[in-house]
């Protein structure tokens, strides 16, 4: 069943889909048998970008979304438990990222990489599904335009000067409808930079090793 929201959560879904895309590419890389997966991931720009953008997203939620939603749901304990679950799920992700990095730095632990990546894929995709199905309807029910604007600004601030790389990464493979919706928020000169400069530069970047 498709949920109808009062507020526009296009950006949230596009961010989740971009991170899911990178998880799939990470899993494919670690499953390769023709080369050393540990070396491939350690040298992949995609791994560093994935971690950075995941931290941006979760950090903005932790600082500028969940506390405000928690306050709005203070008298609704059953709904408040969903927010608490979101925060608890966030807390399980960083140790998995750190675990992967530890294995990448230690050749003696190479055999652990597959299990860690499997746990990361399972945990993060499960979290996104839980958030989209349970948390977004709650956010939609209590959010004000000011709250969502503040969350968006917190997200943007964390990207900072990295927007020329982040935006093409975010929109890579998404639908034309989503692309137009997100680019439509930007001033025309920025859209021109996106099309003429940022996308061509991004297209030359090899995020993950080719097959």
Task: Describe the overall structure.
The chain has 211 residues and is an all-alpha fold. 76% of the residues lie in helices and 0% in strands. The chain contains 10 helices and no strands. It has helices at residues 10-30, 37-42, 45-64, 66-72, 77-104, 113-142, 145-159, 163-171, 176-183, 188-203. Helix 1 packs antiparallel against helix 3 (45-64). The longest helix is centred in the middle third of the chain and has 30 residues, at 113-142.
Give the SSE layout.
Elements: H1 10-30, H2 37-42, H3 45-64, H4 66-72, H5 77-104, H6 113-142, H7 145-159, H8 163-171, H9 176-183, H10 188-203
Question: What is the CA–CA distance across the termini?
Answer: 37 Å
Helix-strand string: HHHHHHHHHH
Low-confidence stretches: none
Q: Quick check: average pLDDT?
A: 95
Find the structural class using helix and strand composition. mainly alpha
Please give the number of β-strands.
0
Q: Any idea what the radius of gyration is?
A: 18 Å
Oligomer: single chain
Strand content: under 5%
Q: How helix-rich are the residues, as a percent range?
A: over 70%
Major β-sheet, in short?
Answer: none
Output the number of helix runs: 10
Shape: globular
């Amino acid at each position: 069943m498709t949920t109808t929201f009062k507020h526009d959560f296009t950006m949230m879904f596009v961010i989740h889909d971009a991170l899911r895309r990178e998880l799939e590419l990470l899993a494919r890389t670690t499953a390769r048998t023709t080369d050393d997966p540990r070396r491939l991931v350690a040298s992949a720009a995609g791994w560093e970008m994935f971690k950075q953008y995941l931290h941006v997203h979760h950090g903005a939620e932790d600082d500028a979304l969940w506390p405000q939603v928690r306050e709005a749901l203070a008298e609704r304990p059953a709904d408040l438990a969903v927010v608490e679950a979101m925060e608890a799920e966030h807390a399980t992700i960083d140790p998995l990222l750190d675990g992967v990095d530890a294995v990448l730095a230690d050749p003696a632990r190479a055999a652990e990489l597959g299990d860690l990546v499997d746990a990361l894929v399972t945990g993060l995709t499960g979290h996104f599904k839980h958030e989209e199905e349970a948390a977004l309807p709650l956010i939609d029910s209590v959010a004000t335009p000011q709250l969502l604007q503040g969350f968006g600004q917190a997200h943007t601030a964390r990207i900072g000067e990295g927007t020329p790389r982040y935006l093409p990464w975010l929109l890579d493979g998404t639908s034309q409808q989503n692309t137009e919706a997100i680019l439509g928020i930007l001033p025309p000169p920025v859209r021109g930079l996106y099309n003429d400069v940022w996308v061509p530069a991004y297209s030359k970047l090899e995020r993950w090793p080719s097959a």
